[in-house]
């Protein structure tokens, strides 16, 4: 259990406090907004302190002197950096993590060093969400694409559809139809209930299927679970803020990209910043006539990434009704994410869930290298790096069928010396392996971490 101070009680701070307290950590949240702190105290077992998170007295009252970690996630980059500076200089706080959105700060890594601004880890929700959208554009038909082991292996979520190649057939057909392709279905969710898949499991229409595969095989496996969607060509981005700019930059050149921005001055900035050939239009993306004038009928992917949840939802619904193949909406309120994921919108993007995974990988023990939240935080996929030897570890040099994995935890892949292995019951785990696990219930995490955590003593 760690003592952790979180500065900032916004959506990211609240979601992080919930995840860390659920993991059993001693959490204190600092903010000036008493209503946000009251909301946190009403449903979480955490301590709160009302005050400015960059003030030394407030940080000391929050326990920064005894804390092993300080995570600053306010809306101000400068407050976050100063909080880390004070935590280090005055209180010797261990690990300092800061949310920094301004891209120019990231361009100078020497700025964040023990001799300058002592931040151990920078996080940018905008960069994380942009990368998430980019992967979804690159893999048509996918609901989620999550990378592990430096991108060597991916976990992909797809929804099976009526008439799909594998619907109505047993999963073992997947291997028969693709000889030589290394893949495994890690989990199936049917009507919000998880199923533990085996070779005899029959896929039904509307099943949410998560499979693990080497990155180069994603397209092949996706085509077996649903017809292979034609590659996307034309992308429309609603909103030219930080995320919209990053996304347009990332996609320009490979796709036809257009951006709709309400503010004429910001639109003019976008014209200067984005590559030639990117179409910039001034207007309201939630206006159906504006969408029609922008060529929505010829668009393959519509991404609504403004700062207004309701505008994103409405614009995405309009785009879907105009026949856009895939629509994505950036949604900050967790309740909206659950509501929209089951409706007209294909993919609801949550900056909080995307950011939390990055943070949890830093906080957690047991060699956890990567954490991804799935199904709006109900399930998780983690990458655990195996360490120790047969004397100190309960997994090293043991077959998978000898491991005491809790019910609901599945090993989807093992990466050994940069080779992706889809394990079988007799696969032996070695020290240094990167093990990719799928947890249908995040409550299983502690048991899994204990299993992979080497003993501190040798006998």
From TrEMBL:
One of its GO terms (molecular function) is potassium ion transmembrane transporter activity. Residues 143-227, 369-454 form the RCK C-terminal domain. InterPro entries: K_uptake_TrkA, NAD(P)-bd_dom_sf, RCK_C, RCK_C_sf, RCK_N, Trk_Ktr_HKT_K-transport. It holds the Pfam family TrkA_N. GO terms for cellular component: plasma membrane. Residues 1-118, 232-349 form the RCK N-terminal domain. The gene is trkA. PROSITE patterns: RCK_C, RCK_N. This is Trk system potassium uptake protein TrkA.
């Amino acid at each position: 259990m760690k003592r952790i101070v979180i500065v900032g009680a916004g959506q990211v701070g609240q979601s992080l406090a919930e995840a860390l307290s659920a993991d059993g950590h001693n959490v204190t949240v600092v903010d000036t907004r008493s209503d946000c702190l009251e909301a946190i105290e009403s449903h979480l077992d955490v301590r709160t302190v009302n005050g400015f998170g960059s003030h030394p007295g407030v940080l000391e009252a929050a326990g920064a002197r005894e804390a092993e970690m300080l995570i600053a996630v306010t809306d101000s980059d400068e407050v976050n950096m100063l909080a880390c500076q004070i935590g280090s200089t005055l209180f010797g706080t261990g690990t300092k993590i800061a949310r920094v959105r301004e891209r120019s700060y990231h361009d100078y890594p020497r700025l964040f060093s023990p001799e300058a601004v002592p931040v151990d880890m920078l996080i940018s929700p905008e960069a994380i969400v942009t990368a998430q959208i980019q992967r979804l554009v690159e893999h048509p038909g996918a609901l989620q694409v999550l990378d592990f082991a430096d991108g060597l292996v991916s976990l992909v979520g797809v929804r099976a559809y009526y008439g799909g190649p594998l619907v109505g057939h047993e999963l073992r057909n997947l291997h028969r139809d693709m000889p030589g392709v290394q893949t495994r279905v890690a989990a199936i969710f049917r009507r919000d209930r998880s199923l533990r898949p085996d070779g005899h499991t029959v896929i039904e229409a509307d099943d949410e299927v998560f499979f693990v595969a080497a990155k180069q095989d994603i397209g092949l496996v996706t085509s077996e679970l649903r017809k292979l969607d034609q590659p996307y060509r034309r992308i429309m981005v609603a909103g030219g803020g930080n995320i919209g700019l990053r996304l347009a930059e990332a996609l320009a050149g490979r796709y036809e990209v257009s951006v709709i921005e309400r503010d004429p001055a910001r639109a003019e900035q976008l014209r200067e910043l984005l590559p030639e050939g990117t179409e910039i239009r001034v207007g309201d993306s939630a206006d159906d006539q504006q969408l029609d004038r922008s060529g929505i009928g010829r668009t393959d992917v519509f991404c609504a990434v403004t700062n207004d949840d309701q505008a994103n939802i409405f614009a995405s619904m309009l785009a879907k009704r105009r026949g856009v193949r895939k629509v994505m909406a950036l949604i900050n309120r967790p309740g909206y994410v659950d509501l929209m994921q089951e409706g007209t919108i294909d993919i609801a993007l949550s900056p909080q869930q995307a950011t939390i995974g990055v943070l949890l990988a830093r906080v957690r023990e047991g060699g956890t290298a990567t954490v991804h939240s799935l199904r709006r935080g109900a399930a998780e996929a983690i990458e655990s790096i195996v360490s120790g030897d047969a004397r100190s570890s309960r997994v090293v040099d043991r077959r998978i069928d000898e491991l005491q994995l809790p019910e609901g935890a599945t090993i989807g892949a093992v990466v050994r010396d940069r080779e992706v292995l889809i394990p079988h019951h007799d696969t032996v785990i070695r020290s240094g392996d990167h093990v990719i696990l799928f947890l249908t219930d995040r409550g299983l995490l502690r048991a899994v971490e204990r299993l992979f955590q080497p003993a501190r003593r040798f006998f």
